[in-house]
Amino acid sequence: MVETAAYESPVGRLLLVGEHGFLIGVYFEDHANGLPIPENARDLPAAFDHVSTQLDEYFDGSRQEFDLPLRPIGTEFQRRVWEGLVAIPYGTTETYGDLARRLGDRKASRAVGLANGKNPISIIIPCHRVLGADGSLTGYGGGVDKKLWLLRHEGALLI
């Protein structure tokens, strides 16, 4: 059974989605690539208390890494990219090319960018930490303004 809950954050309302005790989605209200939520999904905020607590700590600045049971739904390549995103330290950024090289294929930056854009667990799997080759913010599922806010919050951008 899929469960959902709303979470009010400094970057807007987030939709938390879980299944069988795993977090499978964190979406902005106006998320570009949201996962279709089944009609029989249950709104069950209590199921997300641990997620809400860790998000509260992230937003108040006392948490830099999340420790949650995640199960992002995607292809094997997408999951490899998302695992690579989790390895980008808080307060730092990487380019799509950097991430592609780290994953073993320096020519895969475009594919890495596409997989990054399909990340279903925003903020917790930190796709906001990836920039264009020229340092530009490029796109973000929740909007570039939210990406900018998150990077400033983490101290990765001083602008």
Secondary-structure blueprint of this entry?
Blueprint lengths: L1 E8 L2 E8 L2 E7 L13 E2 L5 H11 L16 H11 L7 E2 H7 L6 H9 L12 E2 L12 H10 L6
Helix pairs in contact: 3-4
Characterise this structure.
This protein starts with a strand and ends in a 6-residue tail after the last helix. Strand 2 and strand 3 form a beta hairpin. By secondary structure, it is of the alpha/beta class. It has a 4-stranded mixed sheet with strand order 3-2-1-4, with helices on one face. A two-stranded parallel ribbon has the order 5-6. The mean pLDDT is 92. The longest helix has 11 residues.
Q: Can you give keywords for this protein?
A:
159 residues; alpha/beta; four-stranded mixed sheet; two-stranded parallel ribbon; 5 helices; globular
Cα-to-Cα separation, first versus last residue: 43 Å
* Alpha-beta classification: alpha/beta
Spatial ordering of strands, largest sheet: 3-2-1-4
> Portion of residues in helices?
25-40%
Largest sheet: 4 strands, mixed
Shape: globular
**What string, H for helix and E for strand, traces the elements in order?**
EEEEHHEHHEH
Rg = 15 Å
Overall mean pLDDT stands at 92
Number of strands: 6
List low-pLDDT spans: none
Question: What count of helical segments does DSSP give?
Answer: 5
Q: Oligomeric state of the chains?
A: single chain
Concise structural overview:
This protein is an alpha/beta fold. It has helices at 49-59, 76-86, 96-102, 109-117, 144-153; strands at residues 2-9, 12-19, 22-28, 42-43, 94-95, 130-131.
